[in-house]
């Protein structure tokens, strides 16, 4: 099995569709183009694929001509990000990327105010909406902070290790998603929305070519929602192993420990120090693979279970329901 997908809380799709309807966009068109349904959107426990969220955003971008998804005080017209990306891609360093990028958007997009600040040991990127009340579920804030971390990381070919991310809003219901989106300390009810990182990485060179950039822009925003290789050392090693195995039923912690030239006890301790466990990582991979496979109507539910290492359909059903809140059959029907 080659792992290519992970899942995302339906919260983001719910917020985007709700705002689009308020702005008079065609809901049925948006759902059709994104591969979503009313049943999925109405179930708060459901998770969706990066492809579904990406297609939904692209549909809104085109329908509203607004890359801010109608959450801003004024639109950021479709194509503005591409223009900015092409300009900053000629930067010599990450420092120039942030300086040029913030200057560009402050001139072009009136719905946001960006600021880049260097301090002695770390740097901060600030983001404010001129009318935050238009983004009550914080969808645009989450999306833009994610963009301004992941796109510059891609330009320099390495993760920008975040020290902290701060939000002006209180801890939201979807706060668990932040662990995947922003692997760092998260603080709430701050004076500004921001993230900060070590000052030293500002000298990192931009390494992507113009051809790479063109390909990247063709995929946007999909790459921003796919799981990044931004995990602690042992968590990443375990995920790499799980994501490439052909037989999930045969995966054991002993095999994995031997593969990593360590002991089960040491591996368990390392994962605990990184805030996770072997079973948690295994379940997250199986959950996201299950969601992907169930999005393909030609694959029987029993076959999905077997691919993920479940010998009995009932066991797979119980596991899937514990992961998502609904049974596999219910999830599949909700997509029709």
Automatic annotation (TrEMBL):
Lineage: Bacteria, Pseudomonadati, Pseudomonadota, Gammaproteobacteria, Alteromonadales
Top-level division of the source organism's lineage: Bacteria
GO MF annotation: an example: DNA-binding transcription factor activity
Glycoprotein keyword on record: no
Keyword presence, Transcription: yes
GO-annotated cellular components: cytosol
Keywords associated with the record: DNA-binding, Transcription, Transcription regulation
Domain HTH araC/xylS-type, residue spans: 236-334
Entry-linked PROSITE patterns: HTH_ARAC_FAMILY_2
Matching InterPro entries: AraC-type_N, Homeodomain-like_sf, HTH_AraC, Tscrpt_reg_AraC-type_HTH
Name of the molecule in the record: Transcriptional regulator, AraC family
Pfam families from the UniProt entry: Arabinose_bd (PF12625), HTH_18 (PF12833)
Organism: Paraglaciecola polaris LMG 21857
């Amino acid at each position: 099995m080659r792992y290519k997908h992970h899942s995302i809380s339906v919260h983001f799709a719910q917020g985007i569709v709700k705002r689009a309807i308020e702005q008079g966009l065609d809901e049925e068109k948006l759902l059709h183009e994104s591969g979503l349904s009313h049943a999925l959107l109405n179930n708060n426990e459901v998770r969706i694929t990066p492809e579904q969220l990406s297609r939904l955003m692209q549909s809104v971008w085109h329908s509203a001509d607004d890359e801010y998804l109608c959450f801003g005080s004024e639109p950021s017209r479709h194509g503005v990000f591409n223009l900015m990306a092409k300009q900053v891609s000629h930067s010599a360093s990450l420092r120039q990327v942030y300086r040029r990028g913030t200057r560009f958007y402050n001139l072009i997009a009136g719905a946001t105010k960006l600021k880049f600040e260097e301090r002695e040991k770390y740097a901060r990127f600030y983001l404010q909406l001129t009318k935050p009340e238009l983004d009550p579920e914080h969808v645009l804030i989450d999306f833009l902070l994610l963009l301004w971390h992941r796109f510059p990381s891609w330009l320099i070919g390495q993760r920008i290790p975040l020290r902290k991310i701060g939000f002006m809003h209180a801890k939201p219901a979807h706060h668990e998603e932040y662990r995947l989106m922003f692997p760092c300390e998260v603080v709430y009810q701050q004076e500004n929305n921001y993230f900060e990182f070590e000052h030293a990485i500002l000298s990192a060179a931009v390494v992507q070519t113009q051809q790479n950039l063109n390909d990247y822009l063709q995929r946007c925003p999909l790459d921003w929602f796919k799981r990044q290789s931004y995990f602690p050392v042992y968590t990443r090693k375990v995920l790499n192993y799980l994501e490439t195995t052909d037989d999930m039923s045969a995966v054991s912690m002993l095999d994995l420990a031997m593969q990593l030239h360590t002991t089960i006890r040491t591996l368990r301790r390392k994962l605990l120090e990184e805030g996770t466990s072997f079973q948690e990582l295994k379940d997250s991979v199986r959950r996201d693979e299950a969601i992907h496979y169930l999005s393909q109507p030609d694959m029987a539910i029993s076959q999905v279970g077997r691919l993920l290492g479940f010998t009995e359909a009932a066991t797979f059903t119980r596991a899937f329901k514990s992961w998502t809140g609904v049974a596999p059959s219910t999830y599949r029907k909700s997509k029709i």
